[in-house]
Q: What sequence folds into this?
């Protein structure tokens, strides 16, 4: 079982990366194989639809294709998800995401909550065939300390429950493929 975590933030001290790191640790403690995609450390070229550009993103396409489930997280920027995330998923096709269990997490500053980010992510992820789970998590910047680490235990627990759901659905779909 492999779950790929996709971080839509490239900012230093990113709250998005922080909550995904906590989810990463949670899943690894359950002996789930995790692939943490961090575009800050491994950036993608801007998508232009050419073969040459797609070849440079082959590692990313393969990571999504080989995942049994995805957890996609983004900061909310201007009532939407990050451009980094949009660019990354422009490389991905229906073939890589069809019926792939996908959970979503949004982080936001200023008390806005990230709901618009989640709505936008849901639309584009469904558009490429992902099986987007109804449970979602939105976390305001005020719920993180200066490190940053999410300090709101209830919100952390919601993120962990979301990851449990992604794993559960991935296992159910795996059983269905076998039968």
A:
């Amino acid at each position: 079982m492999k779950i790929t975590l996709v971080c839509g933030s490239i900012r230093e001290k990113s709250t998005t990366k922080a909550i995904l790191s906590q989810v990463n640790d949670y899943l690894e403690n359950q002996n789930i194989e995790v692939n943490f995609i961090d575009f800050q450390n491994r950036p993608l070229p801007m998508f232009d639809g050419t073969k040459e550009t797609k070849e440079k993103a082959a590692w990313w396409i393969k990571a999504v294709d080989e995942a049994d489930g995805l957890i996609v997280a983004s900061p909310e920027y201007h009532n939407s998800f990050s451009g980094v995330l949009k660019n990354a998923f422009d490389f991905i096709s229906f073939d890589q995401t069809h019926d792939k269990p996908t959970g979503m997490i949004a982080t936001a500053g200023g008390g806005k909550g990230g709901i618009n980010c989640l709505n936008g992510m849901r639309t584009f992820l469904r558009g490429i065939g992902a099986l987007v789970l109804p449970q979602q998590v939105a976390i305001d910047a005020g719920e993180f300390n200066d490190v940053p680490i999410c300090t709101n235990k209830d919100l952390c627990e919601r993120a962990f429950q979301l990851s449990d759901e992604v794993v559960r659905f991935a296992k159910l779909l795996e059983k269905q493929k076998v039968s």
About this structure: The CA atoms of residues 38 and 112 lie 24 Å apart. The longest strand covers residues 131-140. The two ends are 17 Å apart (CA to CA). DSSP finds seven helices and five strands in the chain.
